[in-house]
Design brief:
This protein is of the alpha/beta class. It contains 10 helices and 37 strands. It has a 23-stranded parallel beta sheet that branches. Strand 2 and strand 3 form a beta hairpin. It is elongated, with a radius of gyration of 32 Å. It starts with 16 loop residues before the first strand and ends with a helix. Bound molecules: uridine-diphosphate-N-acetylglucosamine and calcium ion. The site of uridine-diphosphate-N-acetylglucosamine has 30 residues, from strand 1, helix 3 and strand 10.
């Protein structure tokens, strides 16, 4: 019997690959009390974008996020991703970040746990899985000890510069020089180090202790591994990406706005590609995880946020802000509608200026109109509340008509109570429904009623003072006033 990994097996085993994401730094240049990698671009933390990319390459169990500054907050923010965390308690540089990951990547057996580690920067969210895979494959093919992803930038200021090895060196790299240590001539080089690398795990850890802190920042630079490995006669190469935009980092707030705009435009392009019409896409704010069905039209100045899902053939009109909500097909959202954590059935019509607060569930073909506020309600199929209404903590059946100005009084100052309105009921305008209260199936509530007791099925409830008319009263009053003036 031949063992799977014995020498007699002619095709080489694919490398066992881990991904390390450096996310321990403070981000001093942002002047923020929040860790840099938790600042949001494209509607989610910078680090969450990098993790999502990493997960397209290796399973979550082979991803190691190196955390340090505000480690617990960072861990909490991305804990759902199922990745591993390595603590870099003191942040002594990018080289040091990899030093603390030694055990995670080497393991403690005879053979190292991984053959290759891909190093990603937790502050560079535009990198695509495709580019990282190219980097990794190039590294494997070159049998290199270190491979870095480089890019040509028009303005390379602030980045490490790649010093290639002589004219005949081909892909080989002599060293990476950081901005602060670069000579004027080196500063003219436009080929920069992206901060993305692949390393052979054994070579990395055999030599990583040769890094020193003799540099302007007094830190262990991972970039110095290029020169360290060169001196040890190991192969160091660079592969240049075609899309320099992918490597941009977020060191300043200004850079963050650039990345945010890029991510959002990329999101709009992807949706356009999937059959969604977006007019004036540069005015819309659509988060990365939002889904929209084909033939839906999105007008200018719309925000679709969080995990919002919108069906096909909907129309989302201007100035609507929809967060974490699910809309069925053929829903019309008229201008200025605000929606949070809500669900809307197919063919419903909302707005203009409807405010749906968390837990609002609107059935198929239902309508909510001008200045209607809802919170934690179920509104059945075909039911309508078209004007100036507050519906909170209410269960409303099908084909119910709610007149203008109706209010559910759900709060007694201490507790919230429920209003139930059964199928086919008709609530006259300006009614006040004092919860807990139930309006039976098919019954009528007369306009301007204050309802404090349950109404049985098919009844008419009047809860207002009977109208009385005093004939001639106004004329008599006017005459009396004339008398006084005389
Ligand atoms: C780094 C590179 C530079 C490259 C640039 C690309 C070094 C020394 N320089 O510079 O050549 O052009 O990225 O964007 O590596 N981090 C840790 N622990 C630490 C320090 C940093 O995890 O002790 C993390 C940070 O959170 C960040 C990443 O490493 O996500 C990069 O660190 P940063 O300080 O932004 O490096 P740059 O100055 O941008
Ligand atoms: Ca950076």
């Amino acid at each position: 019997m031949v063992k799977a990994n014995s020498k007699s097996n002619s095709s080489p085993q694919p490398p066992r690959i881990a991904i390390a994401i450096m996310a321990a730094g403070k981000g001093t240049r942002l002047k923020s009390k929040h860790p840099k990698v938790l600042h949001e671009v494209g509607g989610k933390p910078i680090l969450a974008h990098v993790i999502a990319t990493a997960k397209q390459i290796v399973p979550a169990e082979d991803i190691f996020v190196i955390i340090g500054h505000e480690a617990e907050r960072v861990r909490e923010a991305v804990t759902g991703a199922g990745v591993n965390f390595v603590l870099q308690a003191e942040q002594r540089g990018t080289g040091h970040a990899l030093m603390v990951a030694r055990e995670a990547l080497m393991g403690n057996g005879n053979r190292t746990r991984y053959d290759q580690v891909i190093v990603l920067s937790g502050d560079a969210p535009l990198i695509t899985a495709e580019t990282v895979k190219k980097l990794s494959a190039f590294h494997t093919a070159q049998k290199a000890a270190m491979t870095l992803l480089s890019a040509d930038l028009d303005n390379p200021y602030g980045y490490g510069r790649v010093i290639r090895k002589g004219a005949r060196g081909g892909a080989e790299v002599q060293a990476i020089v950081e901005e602060k240590s670069a000579t004027p001539r080196q500063k003219e080089l436009r080929e920069i180090n992206s901060g993305f690398y692949a390393f052979a795990v054994p070579a990395l850890y055999e030599h990583i202790d040769r890094l020193s802190t003799a540099n302007p920042h007094g830190e262990y630079y991972l970039t110095d591994m290029a020169a360290v490995l060169q001196r040890a006669r190991k192969k160091v190469v660079a592969i240049k990406t075609d899309d320099a935009g992918e490597v941009l980092g977020t060191n300043t707030r200004a850079e963050m706005t650039v990345l945010d705009a890029r991510l959002r435009m990329a999101k709009c392009r992807a949706l356009l590609e999937e059959g969604v019409t977006i007019f004036y896409p540069h005015t819309c704010v659509i988060d990365s995880d939002v889904e929209v069905g084909a033939d839906t039209v999105i007008e200018p100045f719309v925000q679709l946020l969080g995990r919002t899902k919108i069906g096909a053939e909907c129309r989302i009109r201007s100035y609507s802000v929809i967060g974490n909500s699910i809309l069925g097909d053929r829903v019309t959202v008229k201008p200025g509608t605000i929606m949070e954590d809500s669900r809307v059935g197919a063919g419903a019509v909302l707005g203009p200026y409807t405010h749906m607060r968390p837990g609002s569930e609107v059935g198929e073909g239902a309508h909510l109109g001008n200045f209607v506020e809802t919170k934690k309600i179920k509104l059945g199929k075909g039911s309508k509340a078209n004007h100036l209404t507050y519906l909170g903590d209410a269960e409303i059946g099908e084909d119910v008509n709610i007149g203008a100005g109706t209010i559910t009084c759900n709060y007694d100052g201490v507790n919230k109570h429920k209003t139930v309105i059964e199928d086919g009921a008709f609530i006259g305008s300006h009614s006040t429904l004092v919860a807990p209260v139930k309006i039976g199936r098919g019954s009528y509530v007369a306009a301007a009623s204050c309802i404090t007791e349950d109404v049985p099925e098919d009844a008419l409830a009047l809860g207002r003072a009977r109208q009385s008319v005093k004939e001639g009263w106004a004329r008599a009053k006017r005459d009396a006033q004339k008398e006084i003036r005389r």
